[in-house]
Amino acid sequence: MTAPIGAVRAIAAAGLSLSGETMRSIGNDMHERYKETSLGGLALFVTAC
Q1: pLDDT surpassing 80 at residue 3
Q2: Percent of the chain beyond pLDDT 90?
Q3: Which of 3, 7, 14, 46 lies 20 to 30 Å from 39, alpha-carbon distance?
Q4: Contact at 8 Å (CB) between 27 and 35?
Q5: Of residues 21 and 5, which shows the higher confidence score?
Q6: How many whole angstroms separate alpha carbon 42 and alpha carbon 33?
Q7: How many CB atoms lie within 10 A of CB 35?
Q8: In which domain of life is the source organism classified (predicted)?
Q9: Helix (H, G, I), strand (E, B) or coil at 21
Q10: Do the beta carbons of residue 40 and residue 32 sit within 8 Å?
């Protein structure tokens, strides 16, 4: 029995993200205004709840 392709990809992606290398490089490449921090992203817009 073989594993579904989606499960194999999910395991591979989890391994990459847990290593921190991929997420760190993506975070370094992203412009600050697109990050979801208190200084950028949706935090810049006030919404009425």
Answers
A1: no
A2: 0
A3: 14
A4: yes
A5: 5
A6: 9
A7: 13
A8: Bacteria
A9: helix
A10: yes
